[in-house]
Amino acid sequence: MSLFLGQILPYIAAVVFISGVTWRIWRWMIPRIVHNITLSPFPGSWSKAIVWILWQFATFWNLLKFDRPLWLGAWFMHIALFLMLGGHVMAFYTVGLQFHVMAPGIITAEMSLAMSDWIGTILGLIFLVALLYLLGRRLANEQVRAISSSSDYLHLFLLIGIATVGNIMRLFPEYHLGYAPVREYLAGLFLFNPVPLPDHSLFLIKYTLVMILMIIFPFSKLMHSFGFFWERWIVNRPYTEPARGLPGARLQLHK
Predict the structure, then answer these.
(1) pTM (predicted TM-score)
(2) Confidence band of 201 (pLDDT split at 50, 70, 90)
(3) Thinking of the domain 2-235, which architecture would CATH place it in?
(4) Do residues 116 and 91 make contact, with C-beta atoms less than 8 angstroms apart?
């Protein structure tokens, strides 16, 4: 089982995730946009359109305008997730010394390790609280509960499980796992020379949940993280030419 989870399933999850996301994006790209549906007021240039799209991405502007309770949980959850993903990459690459690398004359190696642990713990707690808030909202709000599907709860419970295990590993020293063994394991995967998983039961649970999430990601509503940019491009792109309409179509008026 350890061989499968540590050296086979990661490659399956990576192939399914990358190919699935690529397939979904390709499906979005092939239909022809028959008419311009840019929303007014539309940006006058591509630079303005990109800035506006990035602003909407950073602030969750539509949610902020139309659904403040949902925005409260979704914004904090996504920001914490984004920062944690970046933090995981930097911390495992530098073995927790990323702050020392950025400011070697100011931040010592010991300070960098402490900062990495504290920032990761704070973000992990924010992420977990936001997820629990979103779950509570889904259960307590009758309208939201009525349109919720089993997959919505599955995604939330997977994320809550990952966040809970991660926070336990952070908050309780006896369950802590250092950066070095994880970096050695991940480096083996990237170099196609896999090594055994770290001997840590909670890491195994968290890692397995992450791989399950990667496998179902391309076929779920979680693709909204990519779909947002495609949808925003359609409705926020510069309006510079009239709609082309259906090619070869003829208009027939009925009396």
Answers:
(1) 0.86
(2) very high
(3) Up-down Bundle (1.20)
(4) yes
